[in-house]
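Inverse folding, one chain.
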């Protein structure tokens, strides 16, 4: 049995200016600060002698490989991304970068921002444009109903907690805002 994992599916190539700045800052930090620091530690550990039994050297080399992999990924990904600088002309509909407030059947509201696949982990209210909820929201307007059901392309949504055994979720768009 092999340890092969298929490559991660490519996310949408869109990103907000704030997300792009965050990825660029991470790349700069890794390249200009973290990598030289780890390289110095590895060369100090290498100067101590026997490298095969030197845990600091082995760990440092492993850390360098991880940093180099992340630098390579960020460099390629930043070249592929399209930064969306402006809001769409029709701000009555949900598009990339929108803050959307949804209301469920119980009257509870939740706000989400639709962002690129590389930046949704920055805030719990951010959802990737590739997520089933975001795909269902694109193009909707205020008071439109959004239904997430079991038969969504890409699988069923992950259910964290439900009061009943319901596999269909109804939401109503109550507000759309572009900052």
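Residues assigned per position:
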């Amino acid at each position: 049995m092999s340890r092969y994992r298929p490559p991660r599916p490519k996310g949408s190539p869109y990103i907000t200016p704030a997300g792009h700045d965050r990825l660029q800052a991470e790349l700069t930090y890794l390249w200009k600060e973290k990598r030289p620091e780890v390289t110095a530690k590895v060369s100090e550990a290498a100067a101590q002698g026997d490298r095969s039994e030197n845990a600091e050297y082995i760990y440092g080399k492993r850390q360098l490989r991880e940093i180099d992999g992340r630098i390579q990924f960020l460099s390629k990904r930043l070249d592929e991304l399209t930064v969306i600088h402006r809001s769409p002309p029709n701000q009555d509909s949900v598009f990339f970068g929108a803050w959307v407030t949804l209301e469920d059947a119980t009257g509870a509201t939740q706000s989400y921002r639709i962002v690129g696949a590389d930046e949704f982990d920055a805030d719990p209210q951010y959802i990737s444009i590739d997520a089933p909820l975001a795909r269902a929201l694109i193009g909707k307007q205020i008071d439109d109903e959004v239904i997430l059901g079991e038969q969504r392309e890409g699988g069923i949504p992950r259910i964290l907690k439900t009061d009943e055994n319901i596999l269909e979720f109804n939401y109503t768009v109550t507000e759309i805002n572009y900052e």
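The chain has a mean pLDDT of 84. The helical segments are 17-47, 55-80, 132-137.
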